Amino acid sequence: MAERAQPLQARDKLAFLLSLVPWLMDHDGASVSEAAAHFGVTPEQIREAVELIAVSGVPGETDSYQHGDLFDINWDAFEERDEIVLTNLVAIDDSPRFSAREAAALIAGLQYLSALPENADRAAIASLMSKLSRGASAQPSQVGVEGAVTTGAIDTIAPDPLAPTLALIRESVERGVQLELDYQNSQGQRERRRIDPLRVESIDADWYLRGWCHLREAVRTFRLDRISNAIITEQPIEHRASDSDVRLPDVLFEPSPEDLEVTIEVVPSAMPLVSDYIPDGANTTEHEGRIRTTLRVSHYHGLKRLIASMPGVAVVVAPPSARAAVQAWAQAGVARYRSTT
Q1: Each residue of 92-109: pLDDT tens digit?
Q2: For a Cys-Cys bond, which of 106, 264, 267, 332 suits 313, CB 3.0-4.6 Å?
Q3: Strands (E), the chain
Q4: What is the pTM for the complete model shown?
Q5: Does the structural domain 10-88 have CATH classification 2.40.128?
């Protein structure tokens, strides 16, 4: 019995057609069955889409379609061998192209994404980087992101001290097994933890692992530079980000009743750097050209690192204990610097 095609909704049909044309350009001479298998539709839907493409185009200056204004295919190959060969493309070469610098910036971002454990299958990212390289107006500069793992002409620029830990996390995700590690929290306490890794994220130069902690029986956030003696176990992962009992917030840090409240002033352009620390409903006002707001931090040690990462753009206003902690830490750094010069 012939396979019966289910009609696509208008929005799905548009998305399908927009995806089909570039796929056919990359797979010149693909068969109808290959295209159907790739897009998860029936061969009949592929044939209907190809016939629609063949009567699509852009009218010329006379607002009427002339020779060369429509897409075209090799009709003999299509009708006799069920093979799709595009013989005329419309407005493809006229579309704006990324400059070499723009393509290099996008490739660097994709290279960063390829290093994240949740993107363990990096074939699609590598394919997109290759297309950006080919489609730019000029050859992009070779770029690299520390800790990223890529192939081809794009190489890493320097070894990352966190790369071994990231590699272990990636391997545990690929194998579907748990991690064991020693973790030192912001108070300096060290504990052995068993983790189901869920997601790796970064804020500025710091990397964080979010995972299900079997010691705490909840999702916890671990800064990678505080992880040591990590090993991969043979225990299968029991919790995943898609599980109904796992709540993985969009923000990296969530407030808790034990958090400390700190008032700071920050220049408006630096607000995105502290947005993850600002609780919902925080009183935010403008004060002499700066934004005054409230942060919640688990410990003053974390506050010191945060303020040190924004020299000249953030100032601790209150409480006095927070100001004193940051001041003492800065003075200790100056004293050490002077002792080594």
Answers
A1: 554 555 666 666 667 766
A2: 267
A3: 30-31, 72-73, 83-84, 86-88, 177-184, 190-203, 206-213, 218-223, 227-236, 260-266, 285-287, 290-297, 314-318
A4: 0.42
A5: no
